[in-house]
Amino acid sequence: MYIPWxxxxxxxxxxxxxxxxxxxxxxxxxxxxxCSLAGMALLWRDVSSKMKGGKRSWxxxxxxxxAVKGVGWLGRRQRKTLEADTLNVKRVQEETLLxxxxxxxxxxxxxQYDFSSIKDIDVFRSRHPITTYEHYRELIRRxxxxxxxxxxxxxxxxxxxxxxTSGASAMLLSTKDTNSEFFLQGVAVCxxxxxxxxxxxxxxxxxxxxxxxxxxxxxxxxxxxxPNSSTPASSRHMLNLYTTPAPAFEVPSEKDTLxxxxxxxxxxxxVGTLESNFASTVFYAFSALQDRWQELVExxxxxxxxxxxALEPAVRSSLEALMKPDTERAAQLRALFQDGFxxxxxxxxxxxxLVLAVDSxxxxxxxxxxxxxxCQGVPFYSPFYAATEGLIGVNLWPQEPNRRYLLCPxxxxxxxxxxxxxxxxxxxxxxxxxVTEGQNYELIIxxxxxxxxxxxxxxxxxxxxxxxxxxxxFQYRRGQxxxxxxxxxxxxxxxxxxxxxxxxxxxxxxVDYCCAESGIMGDSIGGSDPHYxxxxxxxxxxxxxxxxxxxxxxxxxxxxxVYRSFRSKGSIGSMRxxxxxxxxxxxxxxxxxxxxxxxxxxxxxxRVLRRKxxxxxxxxxxxx
Length: 624
Ligand SMILES: *[C@@H]1O[C@H](CO)[C@@H](O)[C@H](O)[C@H]1NC(C)=O
Ligand SMILES: *[C@@H]1O[C@H](CO)[C@@H](O)[C@H](O)[C@H]1NC(C)=O
Ligand SMILES: *[C@@H]1O[C@H](CO)[C@@H](O)[C@H](O)[C@H]1NC(C)=O
Ligand SMILES: *[C@@H]1O[C@H](CO)[C@@H](O)[C@H](O)[C@H]1NC(C)=O
Prior knowledge:
There is one protein chain. With 624 residues, this protein is an alpha/beta fold. The chain folds into 4 domains: 3-85, no CATH class; 89-177 and 385-479, ANL, N-terminal domain (Rossmann fold), CATH 3.40.50.12780; 238-378, no CATH class; 481-619. The chain has helices spanning 3-19, 28-35, 37-49, 58-86, 89-103, 108-112, 121-127, 133-144, 176-197, 254-267, 279-302, 313-320, 327-338, 344-348, 364-372, 491-503, 518-521, 546-559, 561-569, 584-596, 612-620; strands at 158-161, 171-174, 207-209, 217-218, 224-227, 273-278, 354-358, 380-381, 384-387, 390-394, 405-407, 413-418, 440-446, 454-466, 469-477, 509-517, 532-539, 576-579, 608-609. A hairpin with a 2-residue loop joins strand 14 (454-466) and strand 15. Helix 11 (279-302) packs across helix 13. The longest helix has 29 residues, at 58-86. The structure holds 2-acetamido-2-deoxy-beta-D-glucopyranose (4 copies). Residues 158, 160, 174, 178-179, 182, 228-230, 386, 602 line the site of one 2-acetamido-2-deoxy-beta-D-glucopyranose (NAG).
């Protein structure tokens, strides 16, 4: 008779999650209803119909069932709120803004800008300047040192590190609200959209979530500093949803954690979803699988964890307690791997319905590589547009190939700077209801945790409206443009040209790339006209001829009239293309994470290198 206890415990947890939002009383009557015996009989029928041949305990299935139902209910609710909000965007945005100003009106910062007297958007815009990180640097240093109520009324939970794609990494504040808001407005809504678009995900199959427990250091005042990151570390009760058991999340090394994610995923033939914040993490997981499959299969065969992993004895034994020698699965896996890695995901896990990971922006190439190779035939869903600055938009159209995000009117107060005025001194901003479809804008946000009229640095294109609310596509990072003579070649433009050039290099497959402006290279390359230094990692070719390399320059000239004109005038020199060794980008990524103190969960590859050291690192890896 221990099942009802499990049930009750889980219901309490679900209520606790829901209870986060005070406006919403815990659904106690529903809870009691579910507890009734009749309900349980029905429940069991439903549960058993959703199993896909996994061997799991009752309690684990049941708690997953309840978590899924609870989140489903929450998702439908949040979606309704969102729909209603999009019908009156101006009011919702003003409410959101004034609420935040009011909440922080008694901080030193709030007094300085006299937040308490601001009663509408226009006064706010006239009184508060547009800001960049410099505006906050000193304030955040003081918060790290222990000063309170400086910018925000709440005590910060962590100081989040951004991945620093546009220069040095920055430290931002993160509060309790950040997490619960992200869950309610982001995760719940996206899970709802996912359940509608991919009904098969409404099953009791487990998810493999490639997640790494971040390491934190502490500020002088004891506030953790680190990559900000969510689940599962923050929600251990959700662990039943995942193939990876709890002890694996305590393993500090990224490499070992990844091995364990793979090990427990391979053991379970009924995995339903692969999940990660970014497609790059999923891509690196499959390349590790390709490298280490023999070791993994042996472990499954023996029911042991490879001795190559440096695990604490207690962690190792609790992991091994969850394994039994499984020669049958091992033999099956061996046969599958020997057939090659194209489409391997669907062969390892025949009931795999979805890869859930952000694959827009700098993650686009990893998504494309996965779909062409390892994950052929599996749908992808890119759920949010988020930054360290918090939740910006949600993708309500999972099945569309273009990643489009609806801005969340209650998550942040947004302003828009038209692309043409980015360089102006005190430019006039537009509001959500004033933007034009088809135009590019830089986003300026005011959010719950102490950023006011902050230039995020992302340029987005408005591609339509949902009711009154803008839908955007990410275009590029302002700091990630190539500009040696003011020509401003964006990431999207460069990548398109590169992809065209790769098709002209027979047999070549793009693995990764980045660029540097010759200016930062200093003496490493000798004097010449300013030009682009391009580093590419390719599969399938060892060397490129000069003529083949030149193709990339031509492709970019075809796509960018401005670049072409500088090239034909001779004020920009010919692009230099260096081929780097296999695995060079994987190493670069580790190098960058260590330097900027970001974790694999939040890391984004830089497309334009701003530090000479990184460029030198790649020069050292050049093979041709
Ligand atoms: C700020 O201080 C004023 C005056 O002491 C008080 O009336 C107000 O409620 C405070 N605001 C907040 C959000 O605490
Ligand atoms: C950090 O940001 C992520 C999105 O990138 C979000 O899921 C999470 O709620 C934030 N975590 C913390 C601890 O602030
Ligand atoms: C607001 O911005 C802060 C600082 O970047 C960030 O850590 C947090 O996630 C954001 N808060 C919300 C509620 O989105
Ligand atoms: C690559 O090809 C170029 C010209 O085709 C040749 O000069 C060079 O030696 C080759 N490099 C390597 C490493 O094979």
